[in-house]
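Researcher: We're reviewing a set of sequences before deciding which ones to prioritize for further study. For each one, I'd like a predicted 3D structure that I can look through quickly. This is Melan-A. If possible, include the structure in token form so it fits the rest of the review sheet.
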Amino acid sequence: MFPPPRERMTPDLKSIITSRAVGIGLLVVVLAGLFILGCWYLKKRSGYKILRVPNAPPAYEKISSGPLPPPYSP
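Model: Here's the predicted structure for Melan-A, in token form for your review sheet.
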């Protein structure tokens, strides 16, 4: 699982390890770029506008259903 010590590494093994490291780094850069591009595009489209329902009441409004009970006092 772990690479052998450096003194026993052949040039072929060094190139394989280097190419894997470069490939993983490139993958991380591409995925980060896609993530940033996706966030920019979502912001450009003004966010989650599709999910908003215009006829729904605001979530912070309380529906009054009569008088409230007296406050609790110990």
